[in-house]
Write a structure and sequence with these properties.
The protein is of the alpha+beta class. It is built from six helices and 14 strands. α1 packs across α4. The structure holds 5,6-dihydrouridine-5'-monophosphate (H2U) and zinc ion.
Length: 338
């Protein structure tokens, strides 16, 4: 008899339409080479070398103000620039290129160099949520911008140069690949079933409970059925909202609260400041209503089984499809117990 907890299988990602290979039996193979790090040095509250701390000089020559809560600035090394002229190139339908105007910003969560999301006073984290909403609305209202991506890279493993808690905002003229896939799935679901894909999914996970990590009045935190990264999670709003701008006053607090609970669980998992990329997916700002879109956030952490052993997407995963060993249900249970 087939055993979902032991036997190899593949799972369908309802949000992207892609498949992930699950090989639970491999978690029993012997593992050598696990190295635990010593206790991490506690970073200072203010770092004179940090380009994000208040009053400090940035690489581009600008000086940060003496900010008291959040602080947003245009990225000095922006990947996208607003004044890029519109141009298209097509050589026989084979070599196609388009100019891509956009806006890139950096948002510091707090003046304190060492204050992580997990440790932030809720009122301060609420100010970060408010800043996200403001940025989404302001940048999104620009007719040249069709999508606003808010994301946080945390930890050296994810390529962050600076541990001062901050996120980035990249916005484009066009809707990017991952967002387009999710949009197509949500639109098709709505078309076929007359309902919201993530409303139905959230309800199912809320009743089954096996993949839930945490929850509050406004949000669910869960390991998706189709998760690729070992401890990947998703935050889903309970109410149908197409974007972060639709959050009520209490839901903004609810988002701050669930972010705090999830990041604190992550930090407890291997006893280290847990690395991840986190970002929101929501309605494009192309002027359409997009009732199919349901606001959510993805946490993609690279760690596999300890503070130092990370998952690499190589071999079969580069050539064919992503693969995981530990099941999403086991990962959720571990995160839930912490
Ligand atoms: P990470 O979130 O990946 O650490 O990136 C920080 C961003 O800060 C990065 O995009 C920008 C870099 O371009 N930056 C500035 O805008 N000014 C600086 O003085 C240094 C870094
Ligand atoms: Zn700093």
């Amino acid at each position: 008899m087939f055993d979902w907890k032991q036997d190899p299988h593949r799972r369908w990602n309802a949000l992207t339409g892609e498949w992930v290979l699950v090989s639970p039996h491999r978690t029993q193979r012997p593992w050598q080479g696990q190295v635990e790090p010593g206790p991490a040095a506690v970073p200072p509250e203010y770092d004179p070398q940090c380009y994000l701390c208040p009053g400090n000089l940035r690489a581009g020559g600008a000086r940060n103000p003496d900010y008291a809560h959040t602080f947003v600035f245009d990225n000095d090394f922006a990947a996208l620039r607003p004044a890029t002229p519109v141009e298209r190139f097509d050589r026989g339908g084979l070599l196609i290129a388009e100019s891509e105007p956009g806006i890139c910003r950096v948002l510091c969560f707090s003046p304190r160099h060492n204050l992580t999301i997990a440790a932030m006073p809720p009122a301060d984290l609420r100010k970060v949520v408010d800043a996200w909403v403001e940025q989404y609305l302001e940048i999104g209202s620009n007719p040249a911008i069709d999508y606003v991506q808010i994301f946080e890279n945390r930890g050296a493993m994810m390529g962050t140069s600076n541990l001062h808690p901050h996120c980035q905002i990249w916005s484009n003229r066009t809707v990017p690949n991952e967002v387009l896939k999710e949009q197509a799935s949500q639109a098709a679901w709505r078309e076929r079933r007359g309902a919201c894909l993530l409303c139905e999914y959230a309800e199912l996970e809320s009743s089954q409970r096996g993949r839930l990590v945490d929850e509050n009045e406004d949000f669910l935190a869960l390991v998706p059925f189709w998760a690729v990264w070992p401890f990947e999670t998703m935050l889903v709003s309970r109410r149908h909202l197409s974007g972060i701008d639709g959050l009520s006053d209490t839901e903004r607090n609810g988002l701050a609260n669930i972010l705090q609970r999830v990041t604190a669980r992550y930090d407890r998992l291997f006893g280290v400041p847990f690395p991840y990329t986190m970002g929101f997916h929501q309605r494009p700002t192309d002027g359409a209503e997009h009732p199919e879109w349901h606001l959510h956030a993805h946490f993609y952490p690279p760690l596999l089984r300890s503070a130092t052993v990370r998952k690499f997407m190589v071999g079969y995963e580069m050539l064919c499809a992503p693969q995981r060993d530990i099941t999403p249900e086991d990962a959720a249970a571990r995160l839930r117990e912490l």
